[in-house]
Amino acid sequence: MALYTLSYDEADALADFARSHGITYPLLSDPDSEVIEAFGILNTLIDPDDHPWYGIPYPGVYLVDADGVIADKFFESSFMLRPSAEQLLRAALGEQLELPPVERVDGEVAVDVAFDGEMWWPGVVHDLVVRFAVPSGQHLYGEPVPDGMVATTVEVDDQVSLVVQPARLPPTSPHTLGTGETLQIFDGDVTVRVPMTHLGRALVPADDGRTVVRLTGTVRWQSCDDEACHLPRNESFSIEVPAAKHDSPASELEHPEGMDVRVRLGEMVSRRTDRPLGDIMREATAD
User: Fold this and answer.
1) Distance (Å, rounded) from C-alpha 165 to C-alpha 193?
2) Which H or E element spans position 13?
3) Positive or negative, the Cα torsion across 101, 212, 200, 220?
């Protein structure tokens, strides 16, 4: 497996960045955004008339198999978001999150909520993983369901700077009731993944002195067998995820490893606009 990165930065800037961070894999330069446009990933949310960063792609990752076929891809609309290493490894190698088995309860659905990752950096997308251990002979329902029944859902409470994407559920299969009505069910145990990230303002102190993001929400489900349905269930969750702070590059132009971001940014600005670098950085800081 090989790793490459592509950006519209000049080759000298990429070489400087690689030296500063000890990067050994290839960094490819596309200063005119020709490859970026050819792949159809040019970030069209940036105004081409007055923004020095026009030409940047939507941030993303392509995973290509041994036959040259794209097997998976991760893309975000905001330059502030990036997929986590856990997401990429799982897609590339089929590696699963190492979690202890869900402790089963006779005749009842057991639920476990965990975070896919050990440390949460701002802008990095991780999965909240909700696992349902379903007793043999029972099943859970997917959308849509008739009035009076409950589909399997995971809801994460809103909080400042927490970006929650739609939940990813496994495929369902049709199940016909005795009444002749067909519903969509999940066969066996169910794992739901909710991709999310924080943008730095969701951090809170934990009792043990760590800095964490506290995730709270509600899991809803209803289990049935071939003869009857159990009452709908709601279960609240609250977990704390160790999190790291990250300074904005707009305020930290002198890189701690020695890379002078101001010089490289000035080169990019001079290539793409006649506006002074100071005006550009004041606007970036204000945003």
Assistant:
1) 10
2) helix 11-21
3) positive
